[in-house]
Amino acid sequence: MKPTVGLVGWRGMVGSVLLGRMKEEKDFDVIQPVFFSTSQAGQAGPNVGVDAPTVLKDAYSIEALKECEVVITCQGGDYTKKVLPELRQVGWTGYWIDAASTKRMDADSIIILDPVNRDVIDKGIKDGIKNYVGGNCTVSLMLMAVGGLFKHNLVEWVSAETYQAASGAGAKNMKELVRQMGHIHDVGQPLLDDSADVLQLDAKITECLRDGEFPCPNFTVPLAGSLIPWIDSEVEDGQSREEWKGMVECNKILGTSAPIPVDGTCVRVGTMRCHSQALTIKLKRDVSMEEIERIIGTANDWVKVVPNKKAETMKALSPAAVCGSLACPVGRLRKMKMGPEYLNAFTVGDQLLWGAAEPLRRMLRILLETSAV
């Protein structure tokens, strides 16, 4: 019998990417999918190429959800807060796989990134853990890129300066970024001729960015032609919540006994989908660059070391090059002037794949492979 797997929040951005990947990897061939909706129960469900119930079930129906052996949700934190406790209260012992951050730091949950922490996941399954949660996008992408250094116990601390895409804020924000780009173009169009005064163009665009009519209802400030050096809410010690996640989630993913300090500044930039990070890594000892590149490049099947040369870097190490790909390139690898234990690195990854959807579908596969369901 194929296990019954409920899918919630499959219409949203992350959910849509998840369904696409599940189709590509033929995940639906080995499960009995049941599609749920918070607002359109009773309507037709999606066509995923296999026999499945054609009518959407109510995502708030505990009776319907408890018939599933696994529930995968991309519906968001409020849904998790409401539904999961109710499910557990009626005795449901199934597996909950979640894209939302709600349960990431709970003791009864594992943050999933199996190319990095398969040992932690396997132990969780053996110990009876039933909640498996996707990690913060930048943390996951950092670990996919330089996880080998952590695995070899070489990292004393990391400072991560992030360049995060509009996609991390949601679909509405991605569309808003494009609208902002279009607005800037419309304002500057009369001055784009080569003979036009570029300082006049610059003044016009600056005035446009500061104008109260600039389209930014979601970001609240301009992103196109600018940047936003704060992501998520304020927490203690002057950090943003996004910056706070760096250390706590990294260490939970790795299952460390002695926490490794991770900090930095998280910045929203005007790219659509991929997150980039400039990393300063303090190593525990001097390691040759040849050995560093070997350790990083062999850590998993998706990381790729980009030679620290201008042409190769510009071609392979950008959101434009990586978008839509599972590849996790890392480059600009060099020792820094502070000393031989200080390593510079730059990495890019698709926030909607390894930073969101891919760990969810891979967790489902792990449950099937280990006969947990």
Descriptive overview:
This protein is α/β, with parallel strands linked by helices and 373 residues long. The protein contains twelve helices and 13 strands. It has a seven-stranded parallel sheet with strand order 3-2-1-4-5-7-6. Helix 1 packs across helix 12 (353-369). The mean pLDDT is 97.
How do the helices and strands line up, and which of them pair or pack?
Blueprint: E1 4-8, H1 13-24, E2 32-37, E3 57-58, H2 62-65, E4 70-73, H3 77-89, E5 95-98, E6 109-112, H4 114-126, E7 131-134, H5 137-151, E8 155-164, H6 171-188, H7 198-210, H8 241-254, E9 262-268, E10 274-283, H9 289-297, E11 303-305, H10 310-316, H11 319-322, E12 328-336, E13 339-350, H12 353-369
Parallel strand pairs: 1-2, 1-4, 2-3, 4-5, 5-7, 6-7, 8-9, 11-12
Antiparallel strand pairs: 8-10, 10-13, 12-13
Terminal residue distance = 10 Å
From the spread of the alpha carbons, the general shape counts as: globular
**Helix segment count?**
12
The low-confidence parts are none
Number of strands: 13
CA-based gyration radius: 22 Å
Summed up:
The protein is an alpha/beta fold. It has helices at residues 13-24, 62-65, 77-89, 114-126, 137-151, 171-188, 198-210, 241-254, 289-297, 310-316, 319-322, 353-369; strands at residues 4-8, 32-37, 57-58, 70-73, 95-98, 109-112, 131-134, 155-164, 262-268, 274-283, 303-305, 328-336, 339-350. Helix 5 packs across helix 8.
